[in-house]
Design goal:
The complex is a heterodimer of chains A (734) and B (313). Chain A is an alpha/beta fold and 734 residues long. Chain A is built from 16 helices and 37 strands. Classes of the chains: A alpha/beta (734), B alpha/beta (313).
Chain lengths: 734, 313
């Protein structure tokens, strides 16, 4: 037996209620009237005879009153009883929650899985009685409650399922939906609670349930009967445009960059993927054939885009239509700058094979020889002491080449520079004062540097030094290294590095092959980013400065730090705080959503930066227009690629997975509605208890009245008459 | 407290001389006379028959002369007819002495309405004394609680009424009655047979009281018991939770009267019935007095019934 209301609340109220008649009884005894009395002997004799009976009657009345209140409290607790235990009691009322998977995978097929799910939902809701509470939820990463505990009205439900229920461009996000279902189940105040999950039973959602989802299921099954109902499908074939990303190249005016569209066959058969069309702006730029792909196989299609003007450029890739069109388009934004200004701060002393300082090599790596002064990267080289007077706002990137010490004021300026979107590259070479850096750049969550700098480690092996290990990160800079020839990469050797301890939130991009010690780390800070090389910028510790990799790394690093293409990608169905540099808190920015819908978003403060809270409702481009000196912001939102894997589990497999946590699978055989009716259980006995409480209350009233009045009604007239007769008789004897 | 009881018309009036001799009561009972159920001994010729043959005009019987009889009582005509000496006997008519015994214990102070039992008893005693004196007999009074507090010698003058009334006014009720021992004392004290009227609620040792009654009757007294009870004591109509405080120091009792009413009334019936039987056995008049009844009604009912019985004999 369970209860619908809080046992703690109604239990205590019940105890308080039971105490009421006892308190009244005691107060009644206390608040009595007084009278002098002469016939005490008679009264005492009467009491001796009656006291036992009176006490019994009193206790009986008191017991019945307490029982009535206890039953009332118990009824308000709304207990439910398994009808198997006693089918004669209670009222059978069922609260129903139907969760319909509305993730975009449900759009798969000629007759979509979603349409099938709606048909299942109609079958389920038919089993409800008119007036029974019905809740309908469209489950996705943004669950939508179509009907919340409303009394069942067939026409209303049909209208909702027919017109307002549509699949979303979001992934399922099972955990979030289970939390909501638990909340909705708690709201139901019925003896029977049933939760129906109508889904296409994607493998990716159900095979490996997260501990959170499992815990939510267990909680849900404790309060309700939970049923999983596979919606069924037309098939499982699908090609998805999994990714459209900037891979390499120049994101500057007159530059060209490579974008990669990753196409994957998520189906179960070998199939031809058709073609992918690439658009720059709204112009079709290129069409590439995907070719045949094995199940699960992915293929990257590279597309080069040239940029002849600065600004935010929309890139779009579109895959040939298939059974699931929602994942056939992806958007990307490229922020093209006219030029990049780099401040190179020279801090080291001459050393190494050619006795040149780190700044020298950095400038050479950034300023391409063949472009001369027209180079899109303009580098200004200064000595470390001059940094204190330099206007950082004039630059996009600051490079600290082995700078030994930095004043607290300078560090603070650098911190604000990065927060506002600037890029910082630090070479922690031999001259760097580790203790001072660690103290001034901060530690932990507020640290500007991606690592705590430690002692210098020296190579002691037989080779010429440590080599760079294969990158494990998917950072764009790691991609640069990955594409490099192995022999060429192996030639980059390091005799010394600065040992570091990565800070929370940082990413290790490159490591040494031998010791796995971090060589290059990155960290986002505010609207900007910081890169930390644990080697020297000159040739004292390594030959990296004269290695071909060095220029590639620095060029790509500057591009990443200024354009941050990874920061311009979002997922539809999620919310994000978009950095809006140059805006004031409280100011409204005009947001244009895909399709042209405009809305005003208020700028708020998030830590040290100004942000706009944006909900990415649909895939496409979201733009905040520029205003005067306030720059424009444009980002792309795409469907979550994980949802594209439309392979599903059959009902048996779902049952094997979910039955251990108490979830039953319906719809394997027979009529769904009749199966549900058979499984329905649970009776609320509160009404019965209320009647019982009322009966007990009436009984005690009648008994109290009877005990009080039986003497005066039946016996008293006889006694009085007897007294009168005795008086007369006595007189007549004279 | 419910005040449904009807106060007697002899409810307390302004205090003054002969307060308990209420004209309103006396005017209603004045035409009645107290008729002795038995012959009583009188000190002077009156309208009541005396068991002592004496000087009277009403012939009773003859008896043979014996030595010592006064010769003047010899009926010479009978001697002439029978040649024997006979003494002519006459029924002597004499007045009687009536003593009012008033219980002045604390229990008599109980009142559920406008008049307490003791006040009612005072009116009753004073009014009866008036009747007795008014018809030429002697009336006296004894006031007692645990012991005899005051005794007013019986007289036939009107002054005695004033004395009785004055003493009644002075009563200060005390706890604990011992009616039985008072009756014993009084039986010893009374030299001549006469009327004894007792006014009490009799909330006392019943056995001792009955023994006292028997003692009085053994002395040849004509006893009338006015058992004075409050209507609440008779009907016990209280409802709700009550705390009863004993007037004679019996402590307190907390109960719901409605729940014990039946048993109380049964106890009352037994109590009253026991006294009534004892009275009947001892040939004592028993009058149950409800203080809700007007005093004159109580007196007139009693006297009328007594008169009717006397005439029927």
């Amino acid at each position: 037996m369970g209860s619908l209301n809080s046992f703690a609340l109604w239990g205590y109220l019940g105890l308080a209620g039971i105490a009421v008649p006892i308190i009244i009884h005691l107060l009644y005894r206390k608040h009595r009237k007084e009278t002098p009395w002469a016939a005490m002997e008679l009264l005492r004799r009467a009491l001796v005879i009656r006291s036992g009976q009176v006490k019994l009657e009193d206790y009986l009345i008191l017991f019945l009153r307490c029982l009535a209140l206890a039953l009332l409290a118990f009824a308000l607790l709304r207990p439910i009883m398994n009808p198997d235990a006693n089918s004669l009691l209670g009222e059978k009322k069922v609260g129903m929650i139907i969760g319909i998977d509305a993730s975009y995978s449900m759009s798969h097929g000629e007759q979509s899985r979603f349409e099938r799910a709606l048909d299942k939902a109609r079958d389920i809701v038919k089993t409800a009685r008119e007036g029974d509470p019905v809740t309908i939820v469209l489950m996705s990463n943004r669950p939508q409650v179509l009907l919340r505990g409303a009394g069942y009205v067939p026409s209303q439900v049909e209208e909702l399922l027919g017109s307002k229920a549509t699949a979303t461009p979001y992934r399922l996000g099972l955990e979030r939906n289970l939390d909501l279902l638990n909340e909705l189940a708690d709201e139901l105040k019925t003896a029977g609670k049933e939760v129906f999950l109508v889904s296409d039973s994607q493998e990716l959602d159900w095979v490996n349930l997260s501990p959170t989802a499992r815990a939510s299921f267990e909680r849900l099954t404790k309060s309700a009967s939970v049923y999983a109902i596979p919606s069924g499908s037309d098939g499982e074939e699908n090609f998805t445009l999994e990714r459209l990303t900037y891979s390499s190249g120049s994101l500057r005016q007159s530059g060209s960059a490579r974008f990669t569209a990753m196409v994957r066959n998520t189906g179960r058969r070998v199939a031809d993927g058709g073609s992918v069309e690439f658009f720059v702006g709204n112009e079709l730029s290129k069409r590439l054939a995907v070719g045949s792909l094995e199940p699960g196989q992915a293929r990257g299609l590279d597309f080069f885009a040239s940029f002849d003007k600065p600004g935010d450029i929309q890139i779009k890739a579109q895959l040939s239509p298939d059974d699931l069109v929602a994942d056939n388009v992806r958007h990307a934004m490229a922020h093209i700058s006219s030029s990049v200004r780099v401040l190179c701060v020279e801090g080291g002393s001459a050393g190494g094979a050619d006795d040149r300082m780190g700044g020298y090599y950095a400038v050479r790596a950034l300023r391409l020889k063949d472009r001369g002064d027209d180079s899109p990267i303009k580098v200004n080289q200064i000595e470390a002491p001059d940094l204190a007077v330099e206007q950082l706002g004039d630059y996009d990137v600051v490079l600290l080449a082995n700078v030994p010490d930095l004043s607290p004021e300078t560090v603070e300026r650098l911190r604000k520079f990065v927060q506002r979107g600037g890029g910082l590259i630090v070479f922690a070479g031999d001259r760097v004062d580790a203790a001072q850096y660690n103290e001034r750049f901060g530690k932990g969550a507020d640290a500007l540097l991606p690592a705590v700098i430690g002692k210098v480690a020296t190579y002691s092996g037989d080779a010429t030094g440590w080599s760079i290990g294969p990158p494990k990160s998917d950072h764009l800079l790691a991609g640069v290294v990955s594409r490099l020839d192995e022999k060429l990469l192996d030639s980059a050797r390091f005799s010394k590095i600065t040992a570091v301890e990565p800070a929370p939130g940082s990413e290790t991009i490159l490591s040494l092959a031998e010791t796995n010690a971090p060589l290059l780390l990155a960290r986002n800070f505010g609207a900007g980013s910081v890169l930390l090389f644990t080697t020297s910028a000159d040739r004292t510790w390594s030959e990296l400065a004269v290695h071909p990799l060095y220029a590639m790394l620095l060029q790509q690093a500057v591009t990443n730090l200024t354009s941050r293409p990874d920061a311009l990608q979002f997922t539809a169905g999620e919310d994000a705080k978009l950095s809006v540099a140059g805006r004031q808190v409280g100011e409204n920015v005009a947001l244009t959503k895909p399709g042209g819908e405009a809305s005003a978003i208020r700028v708020t403060q998030d830590r040290d930066q100004t942000v706009a809270d944006i909900g990415f409702d649909v895939p496409g481009i979201y733009q905040i227009a520029a205003e005067g000196q306030k720059p424009a912001v444009a980002v792309a939102a795409n469907v979550d690629a994980r949802e594209s894997n439309v392979t599903v589990l059959d009902a048996g497999a779902v049952e094997n997975l979910l039955s251990p946590i108490g979830v039953k699978v319906l719809g394997k055989e027979g009529d769904l509605a009749s199966v549900i009716e058979k499984n329905r259980r649970g009776r609320e006995i509160s009404m019965f208890l209320l009647w019982l409480a009322t009966g007990v209350f009436i009984l005690q009233s009648l008994l109290a009245r009877y005990f009080t009045n039986k003497i005066s009604r039946e016996e008293v007239p006889d006694l009085t008459a007897a007294l009168q007769k005795s008086r007369v008789a006595a007189a007549r004897r004279i | 407290m419910d005040t449904k009881t009807v106060p007697p018309s002899a409810a307390p009036k302004a205090r003054g001389k002969a307060q308990y001799l209420d004209p309103a009561i006396l005017s209603k009972i004045g035409s009645l006379e107290v008729v002795a159920r038995q012959l009583v001994e009188g000190v002077r010729i009156g309208q009541h028959k005396s068991p002592i043959r004496g000087v009277s005009s009403e012939f009773s019987a003859y008896r043979q002369y014996t030595q010592g009889d006064e010769t003047r009582h010899i009926d010479w005509k009978a001697y002439a007819r029978s040649d024997r000496y006979y003494i002519k006997l006459f029924d002597a008519e004499t007045n009687f002495v009536c003593n009012m015994l008033l219980d002045a214990s604390k229990s008599m102070t109980y009142s559920s309405g406008k008049i307490s039992k003791i006040e009612y008893a005072k009116y009753l005693a004073a009014s009866l004394a008036y009747l007795v004196v008014d018809q030429g007999d002697s009336a006296g009074a004894a006031i007692f609680d645990g012991k005899l507090q005051k005794y007013i010698e019986p007289k036939c003058s009107k002054q005695v009424l004033h004395d009785i009334s004055t003493e009644l006014e002075k009563i200060v009720p005390e706890p604990r009655t011992n009616v039985g021992s008072i009756l014993h004392d009084f039986a010893h004290r009374m030299k001549r047979r006469g009327f004894v009227m007792i006014f009490s609620d009799l909330f006392d040792n019943t056995e001792e009281f009955i023994a006292g009654l028997n003692h009085l009757r053994f002395g040849g007294h004509n006893v009338v018991l006015f058992h004075v009870l409050d209507p609440y004591e008779i009907e016990f109509p209280l409802s709700g939770m009550w705390k009863f405080l004993g007037l004679e120091g019996e402590g307190e009792v907390i109960t719901q009267p409605s729940r014990v009413r039946a048993n109380y009334l049964k106890e009352l019936e037994e109590f009253v019935g026991g006294i009534r039987k004892a009275c009947a056995k001892a040939q004592v008049d028993y009058v149950l007095v409800n203080t809700a009844d007007p005093v004159e009604h109580t007196i007139s009912n009693y006297l009328l019934q007594r008169s009717a019985l006397a005439k029927s004999r």
